[in-house]
């Protein structure tokens, strides 16, 4: 089987209009709870959040709740989070247990989902068998350190759902990264508005004007089955945080240094402290005439050695493959990854109940750490954050989302018109949504 080839940067999508129903309709939002979320693979947690046998994570989506639990050193299971007696939920949040215990009437379930205790079982006169009242199993898959779940017992395997993604991202070994920080909040926009804000670069020049000091953000996106990716044209390097606009003039060492520092200060991700330190050394080790390619390559070389000296090993990734990976991947429907060899910025958004104008979102930074020095998951900051607590670049994105959601309700809006080159990922999201929902497919303009 031949390796998949990326779409040419010049490839145009067919111009389309996306109906606004998917963003604002309460009926559509409720239908997602029947036609989308119970039938699609979705990332529930990271494996690092349940490292020991008996550790569990409660994943909630709309009115459904799923227990993800480590049942063996290399085995993870998932169950519907509901007692088979009277319907009480068994868990919330994260924790560790030997048995799942219903706090209402005392029924208990083993880590394997079997019912192991029915209080006063004899009262049923033999009409109830523990084998018939175990927890309902949920399909589980693992990839890149994430634990995925699917409530459809007849779903395709996760490997089939991922398609090309492992080819492109497995060489980066994201499974070897750990949380550096993690934040979440509730925002007044549809979950799709949030996700779309991070799978296209068309907005960058206007929303993030500070980046123009380090070159234009000229992007294109491409489709990979259910998923999509984004890349940059006219840059030298491995993506955001390690790239230089080749059209820039002057001392390109300073350009790269400024860009790396800006990512660290305004995002807290898309680079690492090691890369910042490596960039700062460029003035010592490269002449002022260094090209963009030379500056980017030298920074990565220095950073790799600095990390090796502190016990962090990078995967060996072919530079050509790294260039094709680009900067951004949308894992349908609601996961976004901005990966590199030593870090990954991630986003996840879920509907906040059945309100189409609200979503729950998370932003997190993954990084490689020396063995034994990874932040413990319980020490990673996961408290709800207010808008004023987010760093500049993310706050700039947030400044759009609420206004977009309000605008979607305008009687004057005649549909959404994504850029055919830079926003193919947005179109791809809605084409795939339409397959599940049975309506709302992007259409050619009249």
What CATH architecture label of the largest domain applies? Answer: Alpha-Beta Complex
What radius of gyration results from the CA coordinates? Answer: 23 Å
Q: Largest beta sheet, briefly?
A: 7 strands, antiparallel
* Structure annotation, total helices: 13
Shape: globular
What structural category arises from helix and sheet content? alpha+beta
Distance between the termini: 40 Å
Instruction: Report the sheet-strand fraction.
Output: 15-25%
**What's the β-strand tally?**
19
Notes on the protein architecture:
Mean pLDDT is 91; it is low at 236-242. The chain is α+β, with helices and mostly antiparallel strands and 446 residues long. The protein has a 7-stranded antiparallel beta sheet, sandwiched between helices. A 4-stranded antiparallel beta sheet has the order 4-3-2-5, with no helix packed on it. 26% of the residues lie in helices and 23% in strands. It has 13 helices and 19 strands. It has 2 domains: 1-39 and 171-446, Naphthalene 1,2-dioxygenase Alpha Subunit, Chain A, domain 1, CATH 3.90.380; 42-154, Rieske Iron-sulfur Protein. The longest helix is centred in the C-terminal third of the chain and has 18 residues, at 292-309. It is globular and about 90 Å long.
């Amino acid at each position: 089987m031949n390796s998949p080839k990326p779409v040419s940067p010049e490839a145009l999508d067919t111009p389309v209009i996306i109906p606004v129903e998917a963003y604002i309709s309460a009926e559509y939002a409720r239908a997602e709870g029947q036609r989308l979320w119970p039938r699609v693979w979705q990332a529930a947690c990271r494996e690092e959040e349940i490292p020991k046998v008996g550790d569990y994570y409660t994943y909630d989506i709309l009115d459904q709740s799923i227990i993800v639990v480590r049942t063996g050193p290399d085995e993870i299971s998932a169950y519907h989070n509901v007692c088979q007696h009277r319907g009480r939920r068994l868990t919330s949040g994260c924790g560790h247990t030997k048995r799942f215990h219903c706090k209402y009437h005392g029924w208990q379930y083993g880590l394997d989902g079997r019912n192991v205790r029915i209080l006063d079982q004899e009262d049923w006169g033999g009409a109830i068998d523990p084998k018939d009242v175990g927890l309902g199993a949920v399909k589980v898959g693992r990839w890149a350190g994430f634990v995925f779940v699917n409530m459809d017992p007849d779903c395709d395997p996760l490997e089939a759902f991922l398609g090309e993604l492992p080819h492109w991202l497995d060489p980066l070994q994201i499974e070897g990264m750990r949380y550096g920080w993690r934040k979440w909040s509730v925002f007044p926009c549809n979950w799709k508005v949030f996700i779309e804000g991070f799978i296209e670069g068309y907005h960058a020049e206007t929303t993030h004007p500070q980046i123009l000091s380090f070159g234009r953000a000229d992007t294109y996106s491409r489709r990979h089955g259910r998923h999509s990716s984004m890349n940059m044209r006219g840059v030298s390097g491995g993506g955001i945080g390690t790239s230089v606009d080749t059209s820039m003039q002057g001392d390109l060492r300073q350009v790269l240094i400024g860009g790396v520092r800006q990512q660290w200060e305004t995002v807290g991700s898309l680079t690492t402290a090691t890369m910042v330190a490596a960039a700062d050394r460029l003035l010592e080790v490269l002449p002022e005439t260094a090209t963009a390619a030379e500056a980017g390559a030298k920074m990565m070389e220095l950073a790799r050695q600095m990390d090796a000296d502190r016990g962090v090993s990078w995967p060996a990734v072919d530079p050509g493959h790294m260039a094709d990976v680009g900067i951004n991947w949308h894992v349908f429907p609601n996961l976004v990854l901005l990966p590199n060899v030593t870090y990954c910025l991630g986003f996840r958004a879920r509907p906040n109940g059945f309100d189409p104008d609200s979503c729950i979102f998370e932003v997190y930074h993954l990084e490689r750490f020396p063995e034994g020095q990874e932040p413990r998951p319980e020490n990673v900051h996961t408290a709800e954050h207010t808008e004023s607590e987010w760093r500049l670049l993310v706050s700039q994105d947030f400044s759009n989302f609420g206004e977009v959601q309000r605008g979607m309700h305008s009687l004057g809006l005649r549909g959404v018109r994504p850029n055919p080159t830079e926003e193919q990922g947005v179109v791809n999201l809605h084409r795939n949504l339409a397959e599940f929902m049975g309506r709302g497919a992007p259409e050619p303009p009249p």
